[in-house]
Design goal:
The protein has about 240 residues and is an alpha/beta fold. It has helices at about 20-30, 40-50, 65-80, 100-130, 150-170, 195-205, 215-225; strands spanning about 10-15, 35-40, 55-60, 85, 135, 175-180, 235-240. It contains 7 helices and 7 strands; from the N terminus they run E-H-E-H-E-H-E-H-E-H-E-H-H-E. It binds NADPH dihydro-nicotinamide-adenine-dinucleotide phosphate.
């Protein structure tokens, strides 16, 4: 265990599975006090049993601005400060535009884009105080759009745009903004897709390559958040070697 983050306080959204869970474990192992938020709190409780440091389990729905604000407030109340916000909660409901259910588009934009904005807004006063860091889990889909991913990509392009605008506003105040862009990571993300063809395609893709593991992304996050204060790692694009 390194202790690069001793005394630092992190809040991670979407920590109940996949990438968020791995980030929570890694930051805790690095010495941070970690608040973990998601809707499935029973999974968060199981996770915190494996985290070595102090933890806080938060019921959090990022599509609800009040829920997000309450989670930030509870974190600061418990640990006295906030140094790292990881906006990781996300959904991917892939499929072609024609025939899609627009309710799924709303879920993706509300979660991936607006959820990130709400949490950033609620956390920013605390991060300005601590000269903290905001980490956005964007995606390769935040840089390159593709068929059957138009709306998911729109949400992640939105995250990248929001993050760059924000960066220019806060970097002079010492707040750093980090955009992480993973390629294919083996998680349950694609399993929530309602389009059966898309689920099968994701499964095929998974079997065709050595996918990234959540821990591969967590190491990148740890790297970004443990730099000295004058170093701002703005963007990390990480693909599986086997993904073209
Ligand atoms: P998972 O499905 O394993 O994790 C998604 C997490 O988001 C869960 O913890 C889920 O928790 C949470 N979440 C979803 N909706 C909400 C909500 N409304 N409020 C709070 N939490 C929510 O997928 P990944 O780990 O793969 O995804 C994490 C992030 O990484 C996402 O932003 C995704 O877009 C991004 N990403 C993933 C890639 C991949 O290939 N897997 C590639 C590039 C980016 P709960 O349901 O308990 O609320």
């Amino acid at each position: 265990h390194t202790s690069t983050l001793t005394g630092k306080v992190a809040l991670i959204t979407g920590a109940s599975s996949g990438i968020g869970e791995a980030i929570a474990l890694t930051l805790s192992q690095a010495g941070a006090l970690v608040a973990v938020g998601a809707r499935r709190t029973e999974r968060l409780a199981g996770l915190t049993e494996r985290m070595p440091g102090e933890t806080l389990v938060l019921h959090l729905d990022v599509t609800d601005a009040e829920s997000v604000r309450a989670a930030v407030d509870a974190t600061v109340e418990r640990f006295g400060r906030l140094d790292v916000l990881v906006n990781n909660a996300g959904v991917m409901l892939s499929g072609p535009v024609a025939g899609a259910d627009p309710a799924e588009w709303k879920t993706m934009i509300d979660t991936n884009l607006l959820g990130t904005m709400y949490a950033t807004h609620a956390a920013l006063p605390h991060l300005l105080q601590s000269k903290g860091t905001i980490v956005q889990t964007s995606s390769t889909s935040g840089r390159v759009a593709s068929a059957a991913g138009a709306v998911y990509s729109a949400s992640k392009f939105g995250v990248n745009a929001f993050s760059e605008g924000l960066r220019q506003e806060v970097t002079a105040e010492g707040v750093r903004v980090v955009v992480i862009e993973p390629g294919f990571v083996a998680t349950e993300l694609a399993s929530h897709t309602t389009n059966a063809d898309m689920r099968a395609l994701a499964q095929q893709l998974h079997e065709s390559m050595r996918a990234l593991q959540p821990d591969d992304i967590a190491r990148a996050v740890l790297y970004a958040v443990s730099q000295p204060e004058h170093v701002s790692v703005n963007e990390l694009l990480i693909r599986p070697t086997d993904q073209v």
